[in-house]
TrEMBL record:
GO terms for molecular function: oxidoreductase activity. Residues 12-85, 95-345 form the Amine oxidase domain. It comes from the Bacteria. This is Amine oxidase. It holds the Pfam family Amino_oxidase. Belongs to the flavin monoamine oxidase family.
């Protein structure tokens, strides 16, 4: 009889794990609480059909496991554009400092078509009936030699193994474990930082790359405005144009319309009038219920990511943790998600 494996979480870690296991003819059931796959990867299409990243975007040559997966799936990477004058704004009442990044030093890459193509391609490798959206797990109970996975709709799924591919903090706050997890594990889960939680990411779409035409790279770092980081977001074919970046922590308290107003005002002052007329503006505050729940006890970046307790199994070897925050290298990044999936695939 085939082992019944349930993967909780349809982000990069969960789908990568399901894909790696499928290559060995091991079937899994992926349960995703939200209405979409991808977790902290989310590419949307702009008004002009520009792929715009609201979530994870960049990776580097150091991310060899992710790079290998991308190559295996036949996807195309390309370097982040950085040619031209970049800006560093220290004070709102002073002109920005200018600096240049040599093209040979370009440290990061993007995926042709947007990062979502990685998620979509992984999902296409799996049987559609083995992926369930809008399926929130609320309880995991050990019953004799199996685990019973219960969802918010009352569904109960028996499993031989359950892999938690969601942020550790989310698992600890939203899932009831019977019998309870060991006290030291329960205590550590709220202290594992969920990478990107609280981040505010924005995207802008334009008819033309006016900044490139003026010799700017589109790269901006600022201590003075609502935009703290920004990068050129032109697509692989270089026929759709825009910016992507991050807003400061206080931006979350404003309405989206106010955030847009502040962003355009800052960019207009730095890049000229054409920055004031985007085709579209979108942003996302990464605090939704699918990545964060309750209060996190966080004092530093990457706190307790890759913690030894997250490497162990529980409920007599039937319950295991995965996800980028469990990785002992590159935790919080897409590379960490793939590393954690490979580790679990080697165990199962």
């Amino acid at each position: 009889m085939k082992e019944r494996i349930v993967i909780i979480g349809g982000g990069l870690s969960g789908l990568s794990l399901a894909y790696f296991l499928s290559k060995r003819d091991i079937e899994t059931q992926v349960l995703e609480a939200s209405p979409r796959l991808g977790g902290r990867i989310q590419t949307i299409n702009g008004t002009l059909d520009t792929p715009l990243e609201l979530g994870a975007t960049w990776f580097s040559e150091m991310h060899e496991h992710l790079d290998s997966l991308i190559h295996e799936l036949g996807l195309q990477k390309y370097p982040q554009f950085s040619k031209g004058t970049s800006l560093f704004q220290t004070k709102s009442f002073e002109p920005p400092q200018e600096f240049f990044v040599a093209e040979a030093e370009t440290p990061s890459f993007r995926l042709k078509g947007g990062t979502q193509v990685l998620i979509d391609t992984l999902a296409q490798k799996l049987a559609s009936e083995n992926i369930s959206l809008n399926t929130k797990v609320t309880a995991i109970t050990e019953v004799e030699n199996e685990l019973l996975v219960e969802t918010s709709s009352g569904q109960k799924l028996p499993a031989d193994k359950v892999i938690l591919c969601i942020p550790a903090q989310l698992a600890g706050s939203q899932i009831q474990f019977t019998p309870p997890l060991p006290e030291n594990v329960s205590n550590i889960l709220p202290t594992v930082q969920t990478w990107m939680s609280g981040a505010v990411k924005f995207v802008l779409e334009y008819n033309e790359p006016f900044w490139r035409n003026k010799g700017y790279s589109g790269m901006l770092y600022s201590h003075a405005g609502i935009v703290t980081e920004m990068y050129d977001h032109t697509n692989y074919e270089e026929n759709k144009f825009g910016f992507t970046g991050f807003l400061n922590g206080g931006a979350a308290s404003y309405s989206q319309e106010v955030r847009k107003e502040f962003v355009l005002r800052q960019l207009g002052e730095l890049l000229g009038k054409k920055a004031l007329n985007p085709v579209s503006y979108f942003d996302k505050i990464w605090t939704d219920e699918f990545i964060l729940s309750g209060n996190q006890v966080i004092q530093r970046p990457h706190q307790n990511n890759g913690h030894p307790l997250l490497q162990q199994s529980y409920m007599n070897g039937k319950l295991l943790f995965s996800g980028t925050e469990t990785a002992t290298a590159f935790s919080g990044y897409m590379e960490g998600a793939v590393i954690s999936a490979l580790r679990l695939a080697g165990i199962l």
